[in-house]
Design brief:
The complex is a heterodimer. Chain A is of the alpha/beta class. Chain A is 34% helix and 23% strand. Chain B is an alpha/beta fold. In chain B, the strands form 2 sheets. Chain B has an 8-stranded mixed beta sheet with strand order 6-7-8-3-9-10-12-11, sandwiched between helices. The chains are: A alpha/beta, B alpha/beta.
Chain lengths: 318, 334
């Protein structure tokens, strides 16, 4: 990991207009993604992690704030800036069944990005397709087949080959393994890891499986209801959890070890995640927080650096 | 402890255009009062088919019980008629499903759906059934149960809907509850709530629970005994401690190693199992795991391994435990 900022999110918010009001999916998120790192993004469904992923990809235009890379201008300035950003950033989707066009051959799926970005001539592109297929553990003959002929794990490999085709620097992995079986998950994780080393890739790894995130990430950001509540190096986050939501989230994850499970004091949160429409003022987590105080319902906490590189947004953490 | 359910050499097949798919290929297990048995395995290994067959919920045809016995108390499930099954389902055994979003009727008030289940098995007046429904909603920790009973499923969150499903499943105090991936569709904090509730119910009512899941973490937190399924067969059974601390089948071992440990460094590679599970249309002659197994021997490809007793209730179906197994392989046994 080099100490160079690759993608910078500056005060990004993404709101959606719905009939009941405004849905604040992502609110005032500022984040630096460093070159060569894996940044894990965790949170429960509806916390805005996938929306943030799509904003980072340039698929959604943020309501406020701007996204820059390599210190250039905002990618949302015009179509040209967005297009050149898409040469640099790619995404791997969660569902390997719906993210591949069933009417295209695997070869043309992988080639498409290179055509759009006018890379190489036809012959070289064909070679690249074969190279990429082999790189992700498939073989040449697969290029003429259709997605339905592959298993879930194989399709995810095709999705990875497609993302790599245009030689991006940055890949958003939006829950790339949650649709796969346990024995296949580790194959994909190992593949992603090898590719990162080989091409010096930067990952934004979105997931809800905290054990996997901890394993793969250098830093982890925990999201709750559109906000990042805690951000720290992955070892630090687990060893020294500060935000009450992160604590509950980490203690809720069962580990495959019966003795540890029997000893574990589980902090069970009552209730559900509230609706992101018309969020009350104050801390978003106040309604479920076991340490809630007066100030929490009145003032919204902001992300503060507690120790070097460890950021928390909570009034109660000193 | 009383045996609630006994399954003996159960084989379930599906007749499809392509041929006979042998989804369950001879499994035997039993479950006692107040016990949590977890059945783990990957998708397509036959765990859900097993669960559905216990309640005869899979449509027959195409499904067919090719062989075996299922004894639930004094009921012989395999030979029971649909009419008898109507009485058994819900009363003796009930089930909660993976997706609480699709299992409730969206056009019916939640309370009404509950009273329907209650009045099917118990002779109660509408009013009494209503009271019972509210009491059930309270036992599964739904706040304001009285008002909530008049609401429709879309007004409930995923975790709440799963609670309603559990309330419905418990309405006639069944002896056995089958939970088919009850928390897969839920978030981790909600998953913890639901697993807690299931354990609380088990302690209060002594109901036996069959938990079907692929999440080994969940298994470690609640199961008393574990059965690991692969390609339609149970490859290993034992107490949770047997399975997690002394896995004796190469598949179980590989499965456990493929999960990152909580304090594992990224420099250590995850163990991955190469290949994919076999096609059950033409199941292999020998061990189903042979083609992916790192300890595969000649016999594994030709002969089905019998069950070898490791110690007490810990059983593994793997040739490595055969007494004449070469000594140099001893090392990989445990």
């Amino acid at each position: 990991m080099e100490n160079k900022k690759l993608v910078v999110l500056d005060d990004i918010s993404k709101y959606f207009k719905v009939s009941e009001g405004t849905l604040k999916a992502v609110e005032q998120v500022s984040l630096d993604i460093m070159k060569g790192e894996t940044l894990g993004l965790v949170g429960e469904s509806g916390c805005g992690k996938s929306t943030l992923g799509k904003v980072v990809m340039g698929i959604y235009q943020p309501t406020h704030g701007q996204l820059t890379y390599h210190g250039k201008e905002s990618i949302h300035l015009n179509k040209k800036t967005l297009f050149s950003y898409s040469k640099m950033a790619q995404i791997i989707f969660q569902d390997p069944y719906s993210s591949l066009d069933p009417r295209m051959t695997v070869g043309s799926i992988i080639e498409e990005g290179m055509i759009i970005h006018k890379m190489y001539d036809k012959k070289r592109r064909q070679e690249r397709v074969y190279e990429l297929l082999e790189l992700v553990g498939l073989n040449k003959e697969h290029a003429n087949r259709f997605p339905h002929e592959f298993s879930g794990g194989q399709r995810q490999r095709i999705g990875i080959a497609r993302a790599l085709a245009i030689e991006p620097e940055f890949i958003v992995c939006d829950e790339p393994i949650s649709a796969l079986d346990v024995s296949i998950q580790s194959q994909i994780i190992n593949l992603l890891h090898d590719l990162q080393k080989e091409f010096n890739l930067t990952y934004l790894f979105i997931a809800h499986d905290l054990n996997i995130v901890k394993y793969i990430s250098d830093r982890i950001a925990v999201m709750y209801l559109g906000n990042i509540v805690e951000l720290a190096a992955s070892g630090e986050l687990y060893a020294n959890t500060l935000h009450p939501y992160s604590k509950a989230l980490l203690s809720a994850v069962p580990v495959p070890d019966p003795d540890k499970e029997a000893k574990k004091v589980r902090q069970i949160l009552s209730g559900d995640v509230p609706s992101p429409i018309n969020i009350p003022k104050g801390c978003n987590f106040a309604g479920r927080c076991p340490q809630v105080c007066d100030i929490c319902t009145k003032e919204k906490p902001f992300l503060r650096e507690i120790t070097t590189g460890h950021f928390v947004s909570c009034h109660m953490v000193k | 402890m009383n045996k609630i359910l006994q399954i003996k050499d159960l084989r379930v097949s599906f007749d499809t255009y392509a041929g006979e798919v042998k989804a369950v290929r001879g499994i035997s297990f039993d479950i006692h009062e107040g016990e949590v048995l977890a059945i783990v395995g990957e998708s397509g290994c036959g765990k859900s088919v097993t669960a559905q067959t216990i309640m005869k919920l899979n449509p027959m045809p195409p499904a067919r019980i090719a062989h075996g016995d299922i004894l639930l108390g004094e009921h012989d499930i395999v030979r029971a008629s649909e009419k008898e099954m109507m009485k058994i389902r819900g009363k003796e055994v009930s089930m909660i499903f993976q997706d609480p979003m699709t299992c409730l009727n969206p056009t019916m008030q939640v309370g009404k759906q509950l009273t329907e289940a209650i009045r099917h098995h118990q002779k109660l007046s509408k009013e009494e059934a209503n009271k019972e429904a509210i009491r059930l909603l309270e036992t599964v920790n739904i706040p304001n149960a009285k008002q909530r009973a008049r609401q429709y499923p879309h007004e409930f969150s995923g975790g709440m809907r799963q609670r309603v499903m559990i309330a419905m499943a418990l309405s006639s105090s069944p002896k056995l509850l089958i939970a088919d991936e009850p928390t897969t569709a839920l978030d981790v904090t909600i998953q913890a709530q639901i697993m807690d509730l299931l354990l609380e119910i088990k302690q209060k009512t002594n109901t036996a629970i069959i938990l079907i899941t692929h999440d080994l973490g969940v298994v470690a937190s609640v199961a008393d005994r574990v059965a690991v399924m692969y390609a339609g067969k149970i490859v290993e059974t034992g107490t949770a401690k047997n399975i997690f601390y002394h896995p004796s089948h190469p598949y179980t071992r590989a499965l456990l190693k493929s999960l990152p440990d909580t304090d594992m460094d990224r420099s250590i590679r995850l163990v991955s199992i190469p290949g994919t599970p076999p096609d059950l249309l033409n199941p292999p002659a020998g061990c189903g795991f042979a083609s992916r197994c790192s300890n595969c021997m000649k016999i594994c490809q030709t002969d089905l391994p019998p069950e070898f007793i490791i110690d007490g209730g810990h059983v593994a179906a793997c040739w490595l435990h055969y007494e004449n197994c070469p000594a140099e392989l001893e090392g990989v046994k445990n």
